[in-house]
């Protein structure tokens, strides 16, 4: 059985520490047989203090890393790794015992640990949006990918903060064992639908006031009317801006282009209709602004790996 070792590093971010054990621990096949052996560990096998103040007792010491097929490093505020990009000697030695062919996974600031060990050199990676600049500064040999939920570089996978770690674990399960296995985990955990790695991180950005030319009103209108013509020219006219100014302001406020934002808006609306209604697929496509059932199928399969009918079966019961 595929062994997943979850390395807890003090002070571990409490929520992050639970993600991999929950997702991989609940992954099973159609007959209910577990798909992974999940082992939590610390360097010495002792309790690990979390950022919330409570202690987590792992199942093993770091010796499990030598046999693990996948090693997951949850987010941590390890002082040396986060402030100067270095590691304690015992932690560095533990990471050195990982098999060369093992899959490496970091959640949130766990990327700082793998980077400090030299395991991310030359790799595209991501981390929590608040920590990205520090990661790039401390480890210029890594290629930081900003504004995404996770990055899959084959045997090295990294996620942004908090819930993005869930998305990454579901992505791994889907890659290893198919859409149905990942959907069962999502439904068990009553999780939102699977998001692709390129989905943007939701970052609070300063929104200019209406007098400064904010696009917030037109975004609110678009969210309520996804089937309308949402071209840049029309949205810009509604804001009283030129298309060029609108594009610039929109990116400043959302971190996305208007086209990408509209596409995501429409796809999210379609997914909500699939989850909460029994409307025909063609009607869902029309009401969401995606046009046709064929267009909806293409975009939904690209985003979730599932066609509309399968998506509805997988997630309608989880609402």
Automatic annotation (TrEMBL):
This protein's name: AraC family transcriptional regulator
Molecular function (GO) terms for this protein are: DNA-binding transcription factor activity; sequence-specific DNA binding
Residue ranges annotated as transmembrane are none
- CDD domains linked: GATase1_AraC_1 (cd03137)
Alphabetically sorted, this entry's keywords are:
Transcription, Transcription regulation
Every copy of the HTH araC/xylS-type domain together lies at 216-314
Q: Which Pfam family would be a valid example here? A: HTH_18
